Amino acid sequence: MRNITLQIEDGEFFTLLGPSGCGKTTLLRMIAGFTELEAGEIRIGDRRIDILPPHRRNIGMVFQNYAIFPNLTVAGNIAYGLKARKVGNAEIATRVADALALVRLHGYSERWPHQLSGGQLQRVAIARALVIRPEVLLLDEPLSNLDARLRVDMRGEIRELQQRLNITTVYVTHDQEEALAVSRRIAVMQAGQIEQLDVPEAIYRRPTSLFAAQFMGTTNVLTGTVAPRAGGPARVRVGSAEVEVADLGAREGETVRVCIRPEALQVLAAGQAAPAGMAKLQATIVGVEFIGALSRLDVELPGGSVLKVAVLDNPATLARSGDSIALVYDPARVIVFPQGAS
Amino acid sequence: MKSGPFGALGFALLALASVCLGSKVEAQQKVVIYSSNDDTLHKLVFAAFTKETGIAVEPISAGSGVVMKRIQTEKDRPGGDIVWGVSRSLLDTNKQYFSAYLSKNNDATPAEYREPTNLWIGNNLHLLVILQNTKVLPEDQGPKTWADLLDPKWKGKIAFTDPANSGSAYSTVTMLVDHFGGGDAGWSKVKELLANTKVLNRSSLVFQGVGNGEYPLGISLEYAGYVWAAGGAPVKTIYPADGTIAQMEGVAIVKGGPNPDAAKVFVDYVNRKDVREMIIKDTFRRPARQDLDLSKLPGNMPALTSIKLLPYKEVAWTDVRAATLEKIKDLVQETR
């Protein structure tokens, strides 16, 4: 972990996103109080918490190593933290019922963990974190063990719950789609540092590093040389093709990495002229994968570079391997990085 | 569930490293414990310990690798008094950081679960077992041996923890390599077993998955079967008839720690007979000491003498761990 400075807003759904080993869980554990800081501070509002033990920080946690207790009922599990805080029985009963209602498990209080599905158990874990009325909620990859469909459903539930409670939430995940879907802001992390911190749209559309560009969704990365400016638009030579990009300043001869997302490339219908302001590329289709709403095309540029293109399904057009096509794109959607970028 | 004016979370925080925690003032009224045991065991034992002795416990809870690394880093100014819940191989390779103590429970603990010069003492024994959910898989249809798990009928039906994330899963795989003949023959059979497994990220998901019936079978540690059964789950713990291993976990006093007297009290406490009974009752951890009659205690766990135990080359497999984990990773990929 290197120098990190962060400010998370009141009621914000803030996500730490990155691959395994990037430090996101370590950072979360520092907020929780399970991992020490070497220097620096953590505050909730004006209140310094890094000097407090975990149970005095008023933070609710849904952590991977804090599993549901299989030998307590659902109510017993949720009440666990309240009992530790010496809350009276009548109040415990009310608060447990409220917490169950929040996660839509009303009526489940006397069930045993073995009677619940994985998704329901995860909701119990969330209820257990919320019942102590924390100021901040921390979740460490809460959905990673659920199947894909359930993950999508539950992330929506978590998001909706967070908005309803307006509780400041820090969420850790390695799943970029999940982060994009639920977060107000994301901190993309790599090797103990924050690479980029912004709202999802900004990170996806204007990544500030090659790492962020490749980590979020899919992108094409071409290596080329900046062509001499000849009064026209800026271009990068990739093989024997020339890719038009937004203005690069005077960088002729420099080797660069050009990123363009598959959905930014559109296939021009035969005979159609390129719309104003759009750049054009000739290519040959070398592969087609029809997956319903989308078709993924592999297309080869002159000189051999291959691009991935994603097109929405259109029954009127038929893309076939071997076809020559024209691609159009908005040069403003191309991101260019220096060759040594990571 | 309000999040009022103090909800904004601002922080400027910096690098992670170990921090010295010792306090000279209340020196003997607290004990700092670096532990890789799980939360349920901590909550049970620490509360009871403090209640009886008046010594407060300051726990630092992390995986065993992290715990040992911290002790190594702090060697010139140790912040911890006790290390608890780490494996024999980790205890042995880090003996130089411990101070010898002849515990009151020494005689009750078999020599094989003690360091000869008293630098550490065994605390829990973890048997590697097969869990079966008897609601989704009738009891008599379950496997009886590790070899039975190779049957293709179990494909996708055995929950297993990723050995990259679990010491016991790593031990299971390596134990089976040797048990199935060693070398290529052993690995070939292990691959067949892996092909039948659903590999999950952490052990608690295996326990939970068998507990709630998502998987009929799981490869697990002994205590998990009993803990889930105690909560009413239809889980049976199978001790493979072709043998298994008992992995020892122990406790040691950190040399130069801030509260050495309190540390000794803890070592004596955590292996005391009545304390071990309390631990079994709530968490079903099998003790290293062999003088408890388990048939009279909750769970009715079988005596160690009744279980077929296999030899296990713990030191050798620990030495090649990194390379072996890579090999296992490849095999798991190939069998998805």
Give the tags.
heterodimer, A: about 350 residues, alpha+beta, 6-stranded mixed sheet, 19 strands, B: 11-stranded mixed sheet, 11 helices, disordered N terminus
Folded structure, characterized:
The complex is a heterodimer of chains A (342) and B (336). With 342 residues, chain A is of the alpha+beta class. Chain A has 8 helices and 19 strands. Chain A has helices at residues 24-32, 74-84, 89-102, 118-130, 148-165, 176-182, 200-205, 210-215; strands at residues 4-8, 13-17, 40-44, 47-48, 59-62, 136-140, 168-173, 185-190, 193-198, 220-226, 235-238, 241-244, 255-260, 266-268, 279-290, 294-300, 306-312, 324-329, 335-338. In chain A, the strands form 4 sheets. A 6-stranded mixed sheet of chain A has the order 5-6-7-2-8-9, with helices on both faces. Chain A has a 5-stranded antiparallel sheet with strand order 12-11-10-13-19. Chain A has a 5-stranded antiparallel sheet with strand order 14-18-15-16-17, with no helix packed on it. In chain A, helix 2 packs parallel to helix 4. Chain B is built from 11 helices and 12 strands. Helices cover 35% and strands 20% of the residues of chain B. In chain B, helix 1 runs antiparallel to helix 9. By secondary structure, chain B is of the alpha/beta class. The model of chain B is unreliable at 1-7 and 11-27 (pLDDT under 50). Chains A and B meet through strand 1, helix 1, strand 3 and helix 4 of A and strand 1, helix 6 and helix 7 of B. Strand 3 of chain A pairs antiparallel with strand 1 of chain B, so a sheet runs across the interface.
Q: Any chance you could write out the topology, listing elements then pairs?
A:
The complex is a heterodimer of chains A (342) and B (336).
Chain A: E1 4-8, E2 13-17, H1 24-32, E3 40-44, E4 47-48, E5 59-62, H2 74-84, H3 89-102, H4 118-130, E6 136-140, H5 148-165, E7 168-173, H6 176-182, E8 185-190, E9 193-198, H7 200-205, H8 210-215, E10 220-226, E11 235-238, E12 241-244, E13 255-260, E14 266-268, E15 279-290, E16 294-300, E17 306-312, E18 324-329, E19 335-338
Parallel strand pairs in A: 2-7, 2-8, 5-6, 6-7
Antiparallel strand pairs in A: 3-4, 8-9, 10-11, 10-13, 11-12, 13-19, 14-18, 15-16, 15-18, 16-17
Chain B: E1 9-13, E2 30-35, H1 39-53, E3 56-61, H2 64-73, E4 82-87, H3 88-93, E5 98-99, E6 121-133, E7 158-161, H4 167-179, H5 183-196, E8 197-200, H6 203-211, E9 217-221, H7 222-230, E10 235-238, E11 246-254, H8 260-270, H9 273-283, E12 286-287, H10 314-319, H11 321-334
Parallel strand pairs in B: 2-3, 2-4, 7-8, 7-9
Antiparallel strand pairs in B: 4-11, 5-11, 6-9, 6-10, 6-11, 6-12
Helix pairs in contact in B: 1-9, 4-5
